[in-house]
Amino acid sequence: MSATMETFEDALADLKAMKGIRASAIITRDGLLVTGNVPPEMHVESFAAMAATMSSAAEVSMSELGQGIPKHVIAKSDDARIITMGAGLKTLLVVIADPATKLDPIIGKMKEAADKIKKAASVT
Hints:
It is a single chain. This protein has one domain: Beta-Lactamase. It has 3 helices and 5 strands. Strand 3 and strand 4 form a beta hairpin. Helix 1 runs antiparallel to helix 3.
């Protein structure tokens, strides 16, 4: 395993250790899976594609409205929350969390993970 992939896996392991996080993945902005920590029943290719689409739509919308680029995007249902965050020029970090889990600690941990991912990706 390359040092970059090892860093990616470590970042996802840190997220998995948090209470309330069900799944996490690093995906390309085009919607392809780089690596992930997702349950086997989840269709990871669709998950990656839809998360990238959600993030891209939010970025375009905010930009078109002159409101800058979003720091993260959150989709919330009664069953879960999906949070996407940029993790470099070409990658996104995506987390699925329980709906009752507090967002601030998750977003804080995601920022730490995104910084690790961004650094590791810039080395290659």
